[in-house]
Design a protein that fits this description.
Length: about 120
C-alpha cells in the first residue's frame, strides 16, 4: 500500500498528554469522541499506571486508522521509552512535545536520534 493510500483516512491528531497540555490542545479543537465512545486523546495524571499509558499508545498507533499524528509529552514518552523507541511506522507520525513543567530535551527524542543517525551525526 502506498504512503498516500495509508494517509488518506488519517485526519485526526492523537494525544497522550498531561492535563495542562490536554486543556490547551482540546480547547484548540483537537479532541474528538467517536459515536462508539472512543477518544483520540488520553489524559495522563500523576497516578496513571505505565501499563495504561502503553495500552493507549498501542491503541492510537496500531488499532486506530484515523490518527495521522500522535503527540505525546516527552516526559510521558520517557515512561514508555522501550515501546516508543521500537515504533517505526510512518503513520501515525510520532512527535514528542514539551509540557508546562517538563521542557523539551532533544537528546531524549527517539525520532530526532534516528534522523541524526541517518545523517551520520
Amino acid at each position: 500500500m502506498s504512503v498516500a493510500a495509508q494517509a488518506a483516512d488519517r485526519q485526526l491528531v492523537g494525544l497522550i498528554v498531561d492535563e495542562d497540555s490536554a486543556t490547551g490542545l482540546l480547547l484548540a479543537g483537537v479532541g474528538e469522541v467517536s459515536p462508539d465512545g472512543s477518544k483520540n486523546f488520553f489524559i495522563v495524571g500523576s497516578g496513571t499506571p505505565v501499563a495504561e499509558i502503553e495500552e493507549h499508545f498501542t491503541t492510537l498507533t496500531q488499532t486506530r486508522k484515523d490518527i495521522g499524528i500522535l503527540l505525546i509529552n516527552q516526559h510521558l514518552a520517557e515512561k514508555i521509552r522501550p515501546i516508543v523507541d521500537k515504533y517505526a511506522q510512518a503513520f501515525p507520525a510520532l512527535l514528542e512535545i514539551p509540557s508546562k513543567d517538563h521542557p523539551y530535551d532533544p537528546s531524549k527524542d527517539s525520532v530526532l536520534k534516528r534522523v541524526q543517525k541517518l545523517f551520520g551525526e
